[in-house]
Amino acid sequence: MNNFLFVAAENDGIAKCKAGGMGDVVRDVPRQISERGDKAHIIVPSYSRLHQNGTLRSLLNFKLRGVTYSAELYEVIPKKEFANVHHYVIHHPEIEAGGIAHIYHDDPTEPFYTDFIKYVIFCTAVAEALKKECFGKLDVVHIHDWHTSMLLFLRSYHPGYKSLNQMRFVYSIHNLAIQGIRPFDGNYASLKNWFPEIDLDYEGLMDYRYQDCINLMAIGIRLADAVHTVSPSYKEDILLPSSPPAFIGGEGLERDLQVADNEGRLFGILNGSNYNNIREAEKGNLYRNTITAIFQWLQEESKKYKSDFLAHTGEKIVRFLTEPPTFVCSSVARLTEQKFYFFKRSPDVIIAILEKLSKVNGILLILGTGDPGYEKLFREISYSHKNFIFVNGQSEDVIDSIYLESDLYFMPSLFEPCGISQMLAMRNGHPCLVHHTGGLKDTVEHLKTGFSFDGVTYDQKMQNMVSIFDQVLDIFLNDKPTWETIEKNAKEMRFTWKKSVDEYYRLLYSINA
Prior knowledge:
The chain has 19 helices and 17 strands. By secondary structure, the chain is an alpha/beta fold.
């Protein structure tokens, strides 16, 4: 039996520990490993909340900042039980919940300041747990994004954790743009402050653009035994330099990625989608579930500053209970530059789409939280356009209903490492309109399983987005046979985790599947 540990910032296998697609991956891959008769452990931070109903498994003592830190390892109850799959969290008072999905912090004046601190503590605690063999003897440690790459720093440079070299470390890139860049020295949230005893390899650790800083995304790429991007097309994209906004590629890390590729360590494997053990949603509850969620949010102290807007949104939705729209276009995403840059830079485009929808009794429904600038933009558009429904919160019930009841799922991502949302919409037989980039290229085929737009320049992309949207509405209203064929084709697509994890075993884990 092979023994795996997954280390991540999110895990949707346990309740209230998801902000994006990483949480889905960390939930689903261990389940697939379980089906193969192997064992998987998953560990995430507690964020001062997830440990409360857990079982204490170990006390972990380790040195940081020249003093002894003590953290607690808890095993916690998952949403669903699977054989040989175990879920854990690390609790320490400084590993706090952030404002984004009660996970991440947004430090606008010093990016990554708070998150750097909590993930340094988390990773060092995990390293100590590995040293103590809290999960037994491990074959593979699979780590995810910059939040966990500190484990590779500890394995390579910390004399107390040389035993980690006995394990194979795999590094998955979910979002190359978020890199965890912090100073080497001269700051509380700096590398030297937390590891004063280590002689730093500045050249091997530095960010090429900010040479007085460590780049934790780069550390994952440089030091892992295997590096993984979550789609084949995204792997090809990031080997090239970025030229924003027309093309988003390696984001300054293309040199490291090219080295990893030349060394045979870089692999592009498409994420899968879950077709079994999924939450059952009942059709016809989209607006009822949304109103219920709004009433719940209105009672939360943290939502008081937006209570007027939530009430405004609820009032807009009530009429749909008796007079539903003819066409529902939707999107579920964290509000970031990656997901909605086009709308922020060119709000006239979203206005044009809303005007087209209003002529056919259609709505655009976007659910998400995130960047305050994007939240403000969408709130303003909602106040001025009655067919724009901005659900400014997170609710599994509402999200399930959106995937179940939309006519078109919209993903105008500036770039997309893989994208899971389009797979979930297609699973329910709903076509998607996507930007022809990254993993969206690998999953949506124009006029066969959905719709896509592209262009050589930014202006061409915007023109094509609007013209393809016209095409979507024309087919939906005037060519039902073609629309139904596209729906059927979308629903028949299967991006299975079995196929993806076969590739994981062969390429990432070096284990015969």
